[in-house]
Design a protein that fits this description.
Layout: H1 2-29, H2 34-39, H3 45-55, H4 61-73, H5 87-122, H6 127-141, H7 144-158, H8 170-200, H9 203-210, H10 215-244, H11 247-252, H12 258-267, H13 271-299
């Protein structure tokens, strides 16, 4: 097990290097000058050039990239061009909020998505199956910003249950988590249904039924346990999508998160901020998927890690 974990960590290094190169080049190919965005278009060109020289933006790209790598190896993500604050400090303020949204969304998807998927599979081609699949398709197809506006209209304006703006409190995070997790519920429900149907058609399930084993025991003790591998895989991938896709939800609900920070940084051509955000999100995504891989062995003893 330890050897497998170390192998995954070593595999992370070249992946992050390639990712950092791609992000480094893509951000710099976007038209616009980050210094002019920061100082304003009416600032004299001499002042702009002086600031570019101070920030090292006049250096060749290889020099800028090697400087970025050197700072990264020393635990420094650089200094934000837009705010002047360390990127690590900016992320430290925003990352917990994004993580709360992603974890809350994936918990909703895990509970409701798996439950609805099981109900649909057990009632295959019946009313509940068709009804749940229709709701799943609706959930997957509904844009996040539209669902967010509907929730704000109902639960904030009409009912007054949850605030949509203000301090970050548990009550305020309810609607963003529901908005972010709704599409994941539909996706996980469809994945669970498909995986359960494959298992329920196996011979050992029919044998268990012929022996008079209760349907509940067959469904939850036998079928679900053997159907968990695709479900866990989908949950791991979906968690990464929730992390990266939180920008729209954070913008609508005015939440200070990483996704919103990435969008603002791209708009302002804030190179260090974009690079730092992408790397942090990539590391989180890889860590989560490594954890999912390790859970496989606990779910299915046939899986061994050499």
């Amino acid at each position: 097990m330890l050897k497998y974990v170390l192998k995954r960590i070593l595999e992370l290094i070249p992946m992050l290097l390639i990712l950092s190169i791609i992000v480094f080049l893509m951000v710099r190919m976007i038209p616009g000058d980050p210094v002019k965005n920061m100082l304003g278009i009416e600032v004299p060109q001499e002042m702009v050039e002086a600031e570019r020289e101070r920030l090292g933006l006049n250096d060749p790209y290889p020099v800028q990239y090697l400087r970025f790598l050197n700072e990264l190896l020393h635990g420094d993500l650089g200094e934000s061009i837009a705010t002047g604050n360390p990127v690590a400090e900016e992320l430290g303020d925003r990352y917990p909020n994004t993580l709360i949204l992603a974890v809350g969304g994936i918990l909703i998807a895990s509970v409701l998505g798996v439950l609805f998927g099981i109900i649909a599979a057990v009632n295959h081609n019946k009313f509940w199956d068709n009804f749940i699949m229709a709701l799943s398709m609706l959930a997957v197809s509904t844009p996040s910003f539209f669902l967010a506006l509907i929730l704000m209209l109902i639960f904030t304006l009409y009912l007054g249950w949850f605030p949509s703006v203000g301090a970050i409190t548990p009550e305020r995070m309810v609607m963003p988590i529901i908005t972010l997790g709704t599409q994941a519920v539909g996706f996980i429900a469809r994945t669970t249904r498909s995986s359960m149907l494959d298992v329920l058609s196996q011979d050992y399930i029919r044998t268990s039924r012929s022996r008079g084993i209760p349907a509940r025991v067959i469904t939850y003790s036998h079928a679900l346990k053997n159907a968990l591998i695709p479900i866990l895989t989908a949950l791991g991938l979906r968690f990464g999508s929730l992390l990266a896709g939180s920008a729209l939800v954070e913008t609508v609900f005015s939440i200070k998160g990483v996704g919103r920070f990435v969008v603002d940084s791209v708009t302002k051509r804030d190179y260090p901020a974009v690079q730092g955000c992408i790397l942090v999100l990539a590391v989180t995504f890889v860590v989560v998927n490594t954890a999912v891989d390790l859970i496989y062995a606990a779910v299915d003893p046939r899986i061994k890690y050499e």
